[in-house]
Design brief:
This protein is an alpha/beta fold and 466 residues long. It contains 14 helices and 20 strands. It is elongated, with a radius of gyration of 25 Å.
Amino acid sequence: MISKDYTDKKLVIKPVLIYAIYERKKATSWRSWGGIQTKSDVAKEIQRISAELKELETRAEFPIEILSLTPIASEDEVFNIKDRDSADVILTYAAGGETEILLALQSLKKQNLIFLRHKSGPFYLWSEVIQARFLRNYTDELVQSNVTPDDVIVDDYDEVLWRLRALYGLKNTVETRIVTIGEPSGWPGESIDTIKNIPYLAKQRWGIDIKTVTYPRFTELLKKFVEDDAHLKQAGRDAEQYLSQPNITLHTDKEFVVKAFVVYRIFKDILDEYQANAITIDQCMSTIIPIAGTTACLPLSLLNDEGHMAFCESDFVVIPAGILLHYISGKPVFLNDPTYPHDGMVTLAHCTAPRKMDGESYEKTDIVTHFESDYGAAPSVKMRKGQEITVIDPDFEEKHWIGFKGSIVEPTSYPICRSQIDVAIEGDWKRLLYEMRGFHWIAAYGNYLKEIEYAVKKVGLEWDTI
């Protein structure tokens, strides 16, 4: 895992075991299905679950806390759970008990996961009746507002883990604080009203907390920095150290790299000031260049490698997807421009790619100019051939996202943005032509499609996997 400074919040899970104790009665049905029938059965199941959860906690590569298991035999006991308020997720082991217990747990307004046993231990009653009795309430339609079939797991803790990973990502995405250099914006620049509406949609759907640093303020910070000889010397040392790393080759003026470290340090100070872990910059291909004497490409790449989230173009169409994929994957993400998909492939390119795409090691990189301006310093990251990646394409209206799994055919060298890859689309690429929306895409190493789909549905977005 890469380190982050401010906004990471651990996911807190409250496990509960719901059950019923049965007494034999003569000449009548006196018990329900299931292998939890006695107090002794309950005690053994508590031990089993506790051991399983201890192992699960060690397997999670993201921060979680699992609270102590609470056994529950009645609806009233739900509201006496002392640590329920601190939990993000109620993980219910549905061994037995009445429907009212599940309804009461749902009423706590937490994320809900329901674990059923078929073969992993004593058979659970709710493996029989979770659909008809609870999810559908004896109708033919799903009726629960906070629990769906996607929240029900049978036997498999891998299925629990990826859902927790998705919920961790969701918790950290919602209400994320991001600093914008220049105005918060959106990519479709034809309409001023549309540009202003896109950041509003990001706030509305995700609660994104946008803080703005104006360009006059940024200019003041830059002026103060360059007037400090110690700061300038430190930027020079930082640039030397960076360029001396293995697998780095310089193909632009070294002074652009030094100035990039000046901008990087100012960005870091701004993040500290606002106690934020995300930053974006408006007008990064125009306004900042004459002010900084370089481009923002390399500073944003450096921040991404450190575990921050740093996005160009202030595009709040794609930024929520970038934040979510970052937290779910635990890796830096690559905001990119896609080309027209054809023959089962698509080219993705931009000038701000992270070097530490796997979250651990640096990819081979050339430091070149930003393409459109042929100025400044930008990383041309040679991403890993054959690497599986997740790609998300968000829509302009914050209603419907699509995504697909791909694999990197090879890094390329077209006359386009400097970090670029040809990607083989694993799915119906022709269908993608009809489903594409928005403009910018976001990508990360690894396959996280099911986690993304699970998370976005929790906030009411539609999702389509190509």
